[in-house]
């Protein structure tokens, strides 16, 4: 898109690869870009290189459905995502770039007695921790979404919902471009189409990174990849408790605006929102098998259509426009892995985000940057250390994941 512009007019420039950097970040999606941005902005560390084997946002950052919320379940997760939500609210002003954040509200539906109990537990935890989140009755759901059919499926009637007004949707590519522009303006180097082949260590410390464009020395290497997080970690002989699963989504043809909140149903395994172009953006749970495949499937489309009509029978004649897939790095407790790795000095993890990494991009970047600058683990990310899996100290966030978003 920007090839016709001179190098000094582009949003980010091309650079010759240097022989060394203080920090090398593997993965130039939102997590890598945010880490580089806050390293430069908050700590004055600009000798940073971002490497990505594709173009910016080619991975999960460009394939997600960009839902933002903070109504999680655990005492560790809620403050973390709340800080990210607050950063998102000020991000357009901070970057001087329109990221199109629309805080239209987030509705999680309950169709069973157990579902109601689960949402009530989340609402109480949210309120204890100061999150704007509450239980509402079907009548209020109908006021918020007049087109929803609450009783068309007698097996799964809408019995209640968790209403989270600050939640909403964002333009994912605008966030990537805004962070990349900010990084470039502060002197950070972005190197797309630069694949990391090896991470070289000596005496238990990171020494250099080998890429398809040559070898560069580095004091710190940050793993900000998604589905291939385990592959990068194995380059320094670190095994991660991560499995990679495909995640699919689709959009319909554009429609006149009729749906303000984001709608989620964990029972029906579907979520839906309406984009600024009028398309309905629809997703379901991760595929139930481990794979690195980016292929979308007909069974997914059939399931998405069926469950969409459970909630909105009026959409029976609407056509699907396109569908796509990405890959997600899933941990056993549905929480990320962040921080230094014991035994490999200078190697840092920001991985294991599964299906909810985009909403955590700003806070992850800010806190990983703080970790690098101070060499001390911020309290906000301490619960997500790798060693928790060996210390029986998991952060079980699956109850708030609902479905893959």
Give keywords.
single chain, 405 residues, alpha/beta, FAD/NAD(P)-binding domain, D-Amino Acid Oxidase, Chain A, domain 2, 2 domains, eight-stranded mixed beta sheet, 9 helices, globular, disordered N terminus
Describe this structure in words.
By secondary structure, this protein is an alpha/beta fold. It folds into two domains: 7-64 and 172-241 and 333-401, 3-Layer(bba) Sandwich (FAD/NAD(P)-binding domain); 104-166 and 244-330, D-Amino Acid Oxidase, Chain A, domain 2 (2-Layer Sandwich), CATH 3.30.9. 27% of the residues lie in helices and 25% in strands. The chain has nine helices and 18 strands. Strands 1, 2, 8, 9, 10, 11, 17 and 18 form an eight-stranded mixed β-sheet that branches. It has an eight-stranded mixed β-sheet with strand order 5-6-4-13-14-15-12-16. Strand 14 (270-274) and strand 15 form a beta hairpin. Helix 1 (30-43) packs parallel to helix 5 (172-185), helix 1 crosses helix 8 (361-374) and helix 2 (77-95) crosses helix 8. The longest helix is centred in the N-terminal third of the chain and has 19 residues, at 77-95. The radius of gyration is 21 Å and the shape is globular.
Q: In a nutshell, what does this entry contain?
A:
This protein is α/β, with parallel strands linked by helices and 405 residues long. The protein has helices at 30-43, 77-95, 113-128, 138-144, 172-185, 229-234, 298-311, 361-374, 398-401; strands spanning 20-26, 48-51, 67-68, 106-110, 134-136, 160-164, 168-169, 189-191, 196-202, 205-211, 214-223, 243-252, 262-265, 270-274, 280-283, 320-330, 337-341, 344-351. The protein has 9 helices and 18 strands.
């Amino acid at each position: 898109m920007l090839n016709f512009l001179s190098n000094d007019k582009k949003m980010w420039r091309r650079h010759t690869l240097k022989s060394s950097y203080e920090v090398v970040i593997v993965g130039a999606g939102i997590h890598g870009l945010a880490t580089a941005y806050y390293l430069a902005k908050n700590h004055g560390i600009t000798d940073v290189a971002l490497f990505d084997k594709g173009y910016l946002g080619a991975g999960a950052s460009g394939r997600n459905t960009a839902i933002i919320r903070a109504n999680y379940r655990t005492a560790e997760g809620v403050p973390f995502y709340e800080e990210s939500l607050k950063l998102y609210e000020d991000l357009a002003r901070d970057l001087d770039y329109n990221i199109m954040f629309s805080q239209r509200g987030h509705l999680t539906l309950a169709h069973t007695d157990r579902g109601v109990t689960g949402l009530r537990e989340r609402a109480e935890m949210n309120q204890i921790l100061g999150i704007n989140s509450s239980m509402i009755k079907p009548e209020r759901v109908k006021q918020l979404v007049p087109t929803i059919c609450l009783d068309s499926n007698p097996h799964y009637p809408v019995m209640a919902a968790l209403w989270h007004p600050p939640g909403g949707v964002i333009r994912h590519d605008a966030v990537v471009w805004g962070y990349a522009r900010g990084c470039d303006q502060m002197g950070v180097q972005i190197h797309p189409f630069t694949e990391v082949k090896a991470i070289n260590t000596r005496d238990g410390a990171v020494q250099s990174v080998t890429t398809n464009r040559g070898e560069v020395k580095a004091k710190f290497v940050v793993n900000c990849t998604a589905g291939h997080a385990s592959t990068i970690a194995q380059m320094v002989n670190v095994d991660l408790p991560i499995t990679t699963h495909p995640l699919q989504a689709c959009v319909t043809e554009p429609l006149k605006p009729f749906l303000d909140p984001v709608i989620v149903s964990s029972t029906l395994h579907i979520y839906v929102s309406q984009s600024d172009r009028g398309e309905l953006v629809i997703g379901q749970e991760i595929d139930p098998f481990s794979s690195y495949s980016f292929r979308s499937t007909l069974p997914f489309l059939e399931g998405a259509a069926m469950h969409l009509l459970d909630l909105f029978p009026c959409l029976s004649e609407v056509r699907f426009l396109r569908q796509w897939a990405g890959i997600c790095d899933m941990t056993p407790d549905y929480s990320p892995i962040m921080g230094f790795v014991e035994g490999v000095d200078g190697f840092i993890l920001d991985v294991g985000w599964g299906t909810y990494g985009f909403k955590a991009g700003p806070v992850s970047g800010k806190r990983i940057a703080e970790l690098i600058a101070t060499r001390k683990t911020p309290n906000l990310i301490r619960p997500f250390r790798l060693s928790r899996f060996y210390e029986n100290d998991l952060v079980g966030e699956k109850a708030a994941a609902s479905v893959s978003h």
